[in-house]
């Protein structure tokens, strides 16, 4: 961290970015990092391929995240957060070419593509790393940054329910709340802001649950998804509410393809299954896109799952 | 706390009890307290009106909680946990008559019915108080007690989502995880152990959601609840997933009566509304039992809610 801090101190202008399909940790760590750099007197621009999802827009300065670089903004350094590879930046990867790259991440699969790589797989979240950086540099946390970082650790630990809910993650959460993060307000924004139509869709989704051995499945057909603006983020976690299963799958019908979201409780590595179908992800959350009709894709995925993990292992 | 510890030290036999309709905090704090007393060389019996719900039976020694006193067990002291009044003990209140009563609780409405009363309304949970007691007495926490107390603070803060998620609650959680509580395993037991029929019932429940100004309602009719063994604990929280509402109500049809479960996000005090109908509870979670048909009870409760809080306050 000493070398990282030395590099930050001697540089003046920064692009701060993170992975596509932004989540609470990538947005939270970005906003806190940008705010830290500004407090250190740096020029900063926060760029992502996409704007933050609605539920994260309550965060201070979330509206300053842009999707392209405005004319005239020059920068020497790119800080890339929460991204295992440059490919994960989408279109933004072009912006970081030829720049000095600082890579801060907690994914074990990180490719160490930076000029400086600070990759800590045992950290709960990238926000936990930015938290440590703020403390080490000695800048006051403050309520805004505390809220950014709390949102990151809250969402990346699945609301303190995933196995990465470490003593360090919880102690950091305690400090952040003391510094002004409001846990109840943040949880409300992130988890409790569904529209009534989203709730009805969830109701219909839960009616499709099936159990196949240790695998539970759910499906969203195009008929159910008439209003495509409905937010289905987090829906794939619902099937894990069932006892006695090892893995949950959400099949979402798209145009000629099916998006397959895989979840496990940490005992099996669902990213292996995703890889077979050309996808990827984490041990406990992965996804792939499979061509074909829903019923067909479902059969293929279940067949592969049984081959890969075995019936016994899925706890029939 | 000094006087409390002195009393515990000089006494030999204890009945440990808590409120009816046991929850994670009452069971967790009871089991940890009993285990602490045993380690101090005391004779201990844990008694409740009801057995713990299935989802808490993973806790060590949960099967030792009895619902009546076995012949021959004598005791001089009753430790009453997480109960605001003796009435809240149900039938067990007879067992504590004439005994030396130690009252440990975090409900602001606690009636201080004990010979010693340790009531701390700003504590997140009764488990937080037992945690402090264990630390002060200087007994090692250990994995079992850590899991008991983690379950208590987890459930009483609504999975670290309610306003009582204080820095102290999170710091304690951090210590408990370090001492051996497994946050992911415990969350799975408590929140992710539904049967498929319970999931289907939840699906049907979500289909009944209505929004009336700032109040969201749901209902469980007797027709939906044909299998009365299904566990509906936690169902009342689901309506709070909706954005823009101030209060959620679950109406559950019973024999000639309706159980009304009230939830708020902390901005209004739903226990006031429960009191009008002869019920009670906390600011953010309260309940009452109202005679009459479901549609009738619903109209009455909504009318009173609007009178009490006003349309504006409920954030229409």
Automatic annotation (TrEMBL), chains A, B:
Residues 236-292 form the DHHA1 domain. GO terms for molecular function: nucleic acid binding. Residues 14-152 form the DDH domain. Transmembrane segments: none annotated. PANTHER family: BIFUNCTIONAL OLIGORIBONUCLEASE AND PAP PHOSPHATASE NRNA (PTHR47618). This is DDH domain-containing protein.
């Amino acid at each position: 961290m000493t070398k990282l801090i030395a590099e930050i101190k001697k540089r003046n202008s920064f692009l701060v970015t993170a992975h596509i399909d932004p989540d609470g940790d990538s947005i939270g760590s970005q906003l806190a990092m940008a705010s830290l750099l500004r407090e250190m007197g740096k020029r900063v621009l926060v760029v992502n391929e996409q704007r933050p999802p609605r539920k994260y827009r309550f965060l201070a300065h979330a509206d300053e995240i842009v999707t392209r670089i405005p004319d005239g903004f020059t920068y020497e350094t790119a800080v890339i957060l929460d991204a295992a590879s440059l490919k994960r930046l989408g279109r933004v990867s072009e912006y970081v070419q030829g720049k000095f790259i600082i890579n801060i991440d907690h994914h074990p699969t990180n490719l160490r593509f930076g000029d400086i790589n600070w990759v800590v797989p045992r950290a709960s979240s990238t926000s936990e790393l930015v938290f440590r950086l703020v403390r080490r540099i000695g800048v006051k946390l403050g309520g805004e940054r505390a809220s950014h970082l709390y949102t990151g650790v809250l969402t990346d630990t699945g609301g303190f329910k995933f196995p990465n809910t470490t003593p360090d993650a919880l102690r950091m959460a305690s400090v952040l709340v003391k510094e002004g993060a409001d846990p109840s307000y943040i949880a409300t924004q992130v988890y409790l802001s569904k529209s009534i139509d989203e709730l009805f869709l969830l109701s219909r989704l839960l009616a499709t649950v099936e159990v196949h051995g240790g695998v539970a499945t759910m499906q969203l057909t195009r008929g159910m998804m008439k209003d495509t603006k409905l937010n289905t983020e987090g829906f794939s976690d619902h099937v894990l509410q069932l006892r006695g299963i090892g893995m949950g799958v959400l099949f979402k019908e798209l145009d000629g393809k099916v998006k397959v979201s895989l979840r496990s409780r940490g005992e099996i590595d669902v990213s292996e299954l995703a890889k077979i179908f050309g996808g990827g992800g984490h041990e406990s959350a992965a996804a792939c896109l499979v061509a074909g009709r829903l019923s067909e894709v479902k059969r293929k995925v279940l067949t592969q799952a049984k081959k890969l993990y075995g019936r016994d292992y899925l706890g029939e």
